[in-house]
Amino acid sequence: MAQSPTAAASLPKSRLRLSAYGERVAAYTILAAVFAWLVVNFLDNPQQFLSAAVFGISNGALYALIALGYSLVYGIIELINFAHGDLFMLGTLFSGFIITVVFGSKAMSAMGWVAFLVALVLVILFCASINMSIEFLAYRRLRHAPKLAPLITAVGMSFVLQFVGLKWNGSTQKSQPSVLPQGYIDLGGVRIYTSFLIVLAVTIPILGLMTWIVTKTRMGKAMRATAQDQDAARLMGVNVNRIISFTFGIGGALAGVAGLMYEQTVGTTRYDLGLQLGLIAFTAAVLGGIGSLPGAVLGGVLIGLIQGLNEGVRYGAGQRWTQSVVFSILILFMVFKPTGLMGVSMREKV
Questions:
Q1: Torsion angle of alpha carbons 303, 307, 310, 314, nearest 10°?
Q2: CB of 299 within 8 A of CB of 74?
Q3: Are 294 and 68 in contact (CB under 8 A)?
Q4: pTM of the predicted model, to two decimals?
Q5: Which residues lie closer than 8 Å to 69 by C-beta, 6 or more apart?
Q6: What span, in angstroms and rounded, lies between the C-alpha atoms of 274 and 336?
Q7: Are 313 and 55 in contact (CB under 8 A)?
Q8: How far is Cα 298 from Cα 273, in angstroms, rounded to an integer?
Q9: CA atoms 235, 240, 242, 243: torsion sign
Q10: Can you tell me the distance from the alpha carbon of 300 to that of 285, in angstroms, rounded to the nearest whole number?
Q11: In a 10 Å sphere around its CB, with 0-12 CB exposed, 13-18 middle and 19+ buried, how is residue 154 labelled?
């Protein structure tokens, strides 16, 4: 006896419903396992757990600064700027040059603070101008080309900046003196390093300023209009080229701030630093929802926490496995929520 069309049509829906239930069960099982792991490590040594969490948040703030550059550019022109991580690397080298070579500051002092503030302003201008130049020379002409062309160009620019870093820093890692206060505050056995407080003191106002620019200012409204529809924004009198260049400038400035803070808190420079941290920051942007600014911040903090807890608690996998743990979590998360934590599903324009 043949099935009726109505019965036949209901079969795929039933299978889809069972598949959705299976995904939910798998997701809840993974979340329960992660929660149990956190509880076990906290109960084992609360002070060690909280110290690792504080250290992770400190790194996460730097990842957020870099991830915002990825999200800003992708949100405007849907380009993954792979050269952004290497721009951050040049920011670390430039910051060390200004503080150590130009000012000759190698320890905390009044002149050291002056050098730090001057380096903060100059590295913002340095990285912003480089990013805007890259957009003007390399990306602008390919804006209407097939998406593969600007993507390959971004990879090529990454190698160009990495070569500049190799000639500037050399092939080996170099140590850089810090002019920031050293030491830590002990709160019930939880160590809060002074560098962590300084990172937050610099990062939070800058993130707040950037959020204000994007959401409240005229340039921010033009950025959002350009992100939605470039042709419509152009008809409304928006200078699209200037807005895109401005967006690249903001992204470069954030990479410069992250470069200065990394150079002063970690105290090392490497020519291939952008590949490692840039990839982690890009992962944070994807985890939070590529194109979402709050998502980039949330993703950066979460990646930092994952790293800090994995390396700092007793039952973690250890530093050797940190990247494997981070990317495994990203893959699992993308399976269940491909748009990221704060991403929005968008229909493909045809």
A1: -130
A2: no
A3: no
A4: 0.85
A5: 81, 84, 87, 131, 250, 251, 252, 254, 255, 281
A6: 29
A7: no
A8: 22
A9: positive
A10: 7
A11: buried
- Say if CB 249 and CB 133 are below 8 A apart: no
Measure CA 275 to chain center: 12
286 falls within a domain? no
Q: Mean pLDDT over all residues of the chain?
A: 84
Place of tokens 């798998």: 26
Question: Are 274 and 158 within 8 A, CB to CB?
Answer: yes
Instruction: Indicate the length of the chain as a whole number.
Output: 350
Query: Which range of residues forms the domain containing residue 197?
Result: 62-271
User: Does residue 236 sit within a domain?
Assistant: yes
Look at residue 170 and tell me if it is in a domain: yes
Q: What H or E segment, with its residue span, contains residue 190?
A: strand 190-193
CA nearest 287: which of 51, 70, 62? Answer: 70
Whole-number Å distance between alpha carbons of 56 and 54: 5
| Total domain count, the chain | 1
Structural contact between residues 330 and 282, judged by C-beta atoms closer than 8 angstroms: no
Residue-level pLDDT at 12: 52
Output the CA torsion sign for 297, 299, 303, 309.
positive
* Residue 350: predicted pLDDT: 42
pLDDT of amino acid 348: 47
Tell me the three state secondary structure of residue 103. coil
Can you tell me the distance from the alpha carbon of 227 to that of 74, in angstroms, rounded to the nearest whole number? 9
* Residue 342 domain flag: no
Pairing of strands 190-193, 184-187: antiparallel
Bridge partner residues of 191 (DSSP): 186
For the chain, 350 residues long, the average pLDDT of each consecutive 10-residue run is: 48 54 75 85 87 86 88 84 92 94 87 91 95 92 85 92 93 88 79 81 83 86 87 88 92 92 90 87 86 84 89 83 82 79 58
CA torsion sign, 274 to 276 to 279 to 284?
negative
| Structure tokens given for 338 | 């491909």
